[in-house]
Amino acid sequence: MSRPQKPTPAKLLIGLFLKEKRFIVPVTKALTEKFGPVDMASAWFLFNFTTYYEKEMGAPLFRRILVFKPLIKQGDLAQIKLITNTLEREYSKDSKRLINLDPGYLLRERFVLATCKNYSHRIYIGRQIYADLTLMYIKGRFKTLPWTYPDYADKKMLAYLERVRNKYVIDLKQTAQ
Fold first, then answer.
1. For the segment 114-162, what is each residue's pLDDT rounded down to a tens digit?
2. What separation, in Å, do the N-terminal and C-terminal C-alpha atoms of the chain show?
3. Of all residues in the chain, what percent carry a pLDDT higher than 70?
4. Distances from the Cα of 154 to the Cαs of 134, 143, 161, in angstroms?
5. Based on C-alpha coordinates, what's the Rg of the chain?
6. Contact, 112 vs 121, CB < 8 A?
7. What distance lies between CA 177 and its chain's CA centroid?
8. What is the CB neighbour count within 10 angstroms for residue 37?
9. C-alpha distance from residue 40 to each of 21, 22, 63, 67, 160 (Å)
């Protein structure tokens, strides 16, 4: 018989994409007020994998990943998604978002994003939010899945997420002491 196990604390990441980079400072400030200081921030990635968001947000779009210093409870992901949705609404004009926020968490073995959209591979986590298993860490590197968003499957993004994972492993060791 298996026994319930306490979930490992997770590294909170929030991906954001936007057209106007001027929003990065106030949005980062708002996020750090909610989730604590940023531990790492990615370079800018050109978000050119789909035109889906261009009608709403314009083009070109840029992505940046913010990684937060405090570790979170995995069970908090639904509430974090609701908070980021509220912030997206605050940064809207004429019912169109000026920013898109993708919260998720990273563990040693996987990277998970939160979404409001149900699909066959997504698991309901409460509060009308689903968890999307985006990447799995197997044999020393992240592996994409058939449904992994193209920007998260990009080689530069995968390399960045592996650096985040390395930092997360150090953070776990420090919290265990």
1. 999 999 999 999 999 999 999 999 999 999 999 999 999 999 999 999 9
2. 30
3. 100
4. 12, 11, 11
5. 16
6. no
7. 27
8. 8
9. 18, 19, 14, 5, 10
Amino acid letter, 11: K
Residue in 159, 135, 157 with CA at minimum distance from that of residue 146 = 135
3-state secondary structure the chain: CCCCCCCCCEEEEEEEEECCHHHHHHHHHHHHHHHCCEEEECCCEECCCCCCCHHHHCCCCEEEEEEEEEEECHHHHHHHHHHHHHHHHHCEECCEECEEEEEEEECCCEEEEEECCCCCCEEEEECCEEEEEEEEEECCEEEECCCCCHHHHCHHHHHHHHHHHHHHHHHHHHHHC
Q: What are phi and psi of 66, to 5 degrees?
A: -105, 130
The reply to whether the predicted model has a pTM over 0.85 is: yes
